[in-house]
Structures are given as structure tokens and as C-alpha cells.
Amino acid sequence: MLTIPNTETEKILGKLENLPYFTFEGLATIAGKPHDQCKVMVNRWKKRGYLKRIKRGIYTTREYYKRHMGNLYYMSSIASIIDPLSYVSLEYILQKNNILTEAVYSVTSVTPRTTRKTKNDFGRFYYRSIKPELFGGFTTIDYEGINVNEATAEKALFDYMYFRTLSNMAKKPDFNVAEDLRLNLDDFSKDQVKAFNKWCNISNVRKMMLIKKNFEEYVWKNH
Fold this sequence. Notes:
The chain has helices at 7-16, 24-31, 35-47, 62-68, 74-82, 90-96, 153-162, 177-180, 190-203, 206-218; strands at 22-23, 51-55, 58-61, 87-88, 107-111, 116-120, 123-129, 138-143, 146-151. The chain is α+β, with helices and mostly antiparallel strands.
């Protein structure tokens, strides 16, 4: 809990610290103050470092962030608050599953809405637009009352390759795509390989069929 000279501020922030996020309307209810006055309070607290902005009109307290920042689902929960109709995928999930070894400093999600990006007090969040028939392959967990959607490892791999430009080298028969991209795919189970191949077939994209064949020849020979 922050040590704040203003006892009213301390009391209000004490209540907000138990919430994953809050809006001006929520603050007005908790503080019992008009909406406009709550905006002034939030701006003042933000300047003093008591709050972190998730997106316009939505904030969380610094104390809540400090308690949850180490949780593996916390950044995904922020991405879900920004856009509930999305799931975290691509590099972030691949790294989380030790498939991609390179460091990832942003969170990329997939959505049936338009492609866009946003920056807030937590970092950069990207949202890639995908066709409705390819919007799937994720699990949902409840994190502090927030529905957090994360792609399975195999769907994150599909999304990663789907949005990536395939070089001409990768189209050659003796080129190992997984090795070139330093992807650790050896631990994929038969079910995961089957699921990845299913998404490739649903996409009906020539590039994905080439990648599917390449993985089968160089990585998943025994599957």
C-alpha cells in the first residue's frame, strides 16, 4: 500500500488496488464523486505515479501492477482488456512455450477486427487481423475476473508463419525453414502436428501448404 499524506486518496486507492482495472465510471461509484472530478483525480494520480494507463479511460494502480507483474498471464490480461475480441499469439506465445528463443518485447494478438497497434504504460501491443474462419485455436482462462485468451503452441506457430513473408529460399526443396528461423519444434506431439496441419488446410494458402510440407520433411518425419 502506498503511503500517501491525503487520507481520502489513500482510502480510495486502497479500494482500487484490489481491482485489475477501473474506469472513470467505476471510480465515481467508489469515490462517490462526479465523473469530471474523477478525471481530475486520475490525471493528478497518474502524474504522481500512482496509476498506470491501460488504454483511454481505463487504468490500474501501480500497487496492483507490482503484485501481478511476475505472473505469466498478466501481460496477456492487459492485451485482453485492450481488446476482448482477440487472443495473444505469435512471438509472445512461441517464446512462452520455448519455441522461439529470441527475446520478445511486445505482445501480439490476433483479432477478426482491423489491424492496429497501441502503446501504453506496459509497452507495445499489436493486433493482427485474420479471416473469421482462422480466428480460433486458443484457450481461455479466468485471470482475476478477466477472460484471457492465449493461442495454443501450434496455433501460435501457424499464426507466426501465416503473417510472415516466406522468402524465395524457403521454397527450395533443400531449405529447412524451422532451422533458418531458429524454431524449436522437436517437442511437438502428434496431436499438435495434426492441429497445425489442420489450420494450414483450412487456410487454403499455398504458402502455408509449403511450410506444412517443409516441417513434415525436416522436423516431423516421425510424426
